[in-house]
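Hey L., structure's done. Input below.
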Amino acid sequence: MVGKWSLLAVYLLAAGTINCLPSHSTGARNVPTPSEAFPQHAQLDVNGSFHLYWKTNATHITFEAHVRTRGYVGFGLSPNGDMYPADIVTGWVKHGHAYLQDRHSTGHFEPTVDSSQDWILLHGEENEFGTVIKTIRKLDTCDDDDVKITNDTVRVIFSYSENEPHHRRGSLVYHGTHRGAKSLMLLSEPRKVPLPSDVITRDLLNGRFLVPDKDTTYNCKVFDLLNLGKKHHLIKFEPVIQKENVGIVHHILLHKCSGIDRKYIGVEFDCYNSHNHQLKACSNVIVSWAVGGGEFYYPPEAGLPLGESGDSDLLVMETHYNNPNRRNDIVDDSGLRLTLTPTLRQHDAGVLTTGVGVNDLQIVPPFEKEFLSSGFCTSECLNKGLGNNTGGVNIIAILEHGHLLARKIRTRIIRNGTELDPLAVDNNYDFNFQEFRNPPNARKIMSGDALVVECTYDSTQRSTVTYGGFATSDEMCLSFIIYYPKMGLDLCESVPMYNKVPRAQSNGHAVASQFNFTLESDRNKFKMLTSTTKHWAGCNGASLTPQYTHQELPMLIPQTPYVEPPSMCPSVTPPMTSSHPKTAVCGAPLPTEQFDFQESLAADGKYVLFWNVNKTHIIFEVHVETKGYIGFGMSPNGKMYPADVVVGWVKDGVPHFQDRHTVGHSQPIVDASQDWHLLYAREDHCRTVLKMVRKLDTCDDEDFKITTNTKTLLLEEVNIVLKWS
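Output:
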């Protein structure tokens, strides 16, 4: 191995370490204790026997499962909530040793062990709660047998058995009824903001409402918050769902409406079939919750204004009850809990509803695997809402909403004719799990922007037309966008007009009656018509003048469409040589996640090490200005021998990585047990980046146990130009 070694003493740990062989406790514990602070947690089963903790960054995801069993545990990622197809990992602890297998399903039977083991075991033990398995994997492993983890909704499937596998490579014992699935958004980290001491809460509840014995009911109730006395900011809201009605209450909207007489406070009415013109669900939605969602926090710089001076608006809470069995004995007292503060934040927030207008002119023909329906918000309408606000508005979160046929929803943004990366995408939409998505990066809506919401429906299981409407069996295609600062626009949507179809202006049923949707040729004609027809584009805002306007416009099509970024997976064709000159100035290294520790290991700053550590493992990321291989290791004396060494490089876009150890002052030997695991690698015009993980104690005699003692790091770098001392 050609190159020069340098050394540096670095204090890696600030706390204790773990045992090599975890103990097998016989007690019982009701609540699991994770090995580190995880930002996300889900109880996957109803009785609390399977808890999953996780955290993510730009390159990988770490899971920690705590399961009440002494047998094997398994969980996986599935597009449909079924065992097949699915990316699955199984793990267990036997005689103090932990085992992990990366598998995939090929049917509804025991999953097959992958040829590429891309899930990495970080830690395993049996404790008072049960079995703990901690594992890490890349978001995209570039393995066809693994599921790429994106911002889409994913069904996490799980199972566990009271029995361990027969032997290390043997078959799994059938788990029986210990199984299930839960929809989650793995990459959308929830926002939690500390609440000030002066908060007050208001519960808006349905007051023991007797749900009618029909499949769909939209019940509205009028509330008043004028007793606040002065302007407050809504800084948090959450659902209050009666436990026995969890499967009945589908979504709740809170509208802020003008023109309602105060005598109607406390009155209930049918939201969309009231003959009283004052009793209606207006377009100004200020709170939106749907099944699967939880509490929502506004960011510390913004809150939604309520109780302003001179504001006589009342609140109308709309509750959608889904009662497919048409029971007549359901009494419900669900609703919303609002958390408000009189200490006003810097910005007033608002909510914009956009997409396809809820109207039977939205038509989804039967027998279609992927039928696309779109609605838009014009730049003219957004400009009216923005007014003189030249800085645009900042997006806080987005809730995308469809019904039973919806499979994909995308909220697109077009700026000056160029389509940008979408504001929100869910290619695996689940009607029974609807949650706000926080943008991973700061996003704005600017003057001149236009929005398009498109939904993809699967109607292969229906033999009749599905129309846009409020019933669960109808369809919708909407996005609710929470943003700040508040603009005058509440609702911006469109519906297709089917201009070339006779009687199209009447209603959707009249349009659909002119097609024989059992014929593929007619369905294709209708799809072409849907994509080319003009739309009735509406623009609505309580503070706009006039409050409502509309235009007849063709479907918005960007001059420059958005192109998905290319895959980062290695291809058989070597990547093109970088156009950057070799003499280009390198900026400061940008790590792939936030690291607690950083150290420059070379005096000229060309070798930088980042790391994070917890009580089970350590993650290193090295940034080195070289196109050759890089390496570093741990030594008790600062010399090359003895040392635990890792070496990595990138060639033709393909990363290479080796766990080694020294047996003298010569080339290190590749370890029989590869206990350092590569998480990420890249090479650009400036430097090579390697990101890796290993246990603090690998239980390998060739590796060093990382403890609270200072460890001396050895580093090596090969570069024709640069020299190291």
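Residues 520-532 form the longest helix (13 residues). Confidence is low (pLDDT under 50) at residues 15-19, 21-27, 572-583, 717-725.

-- N.
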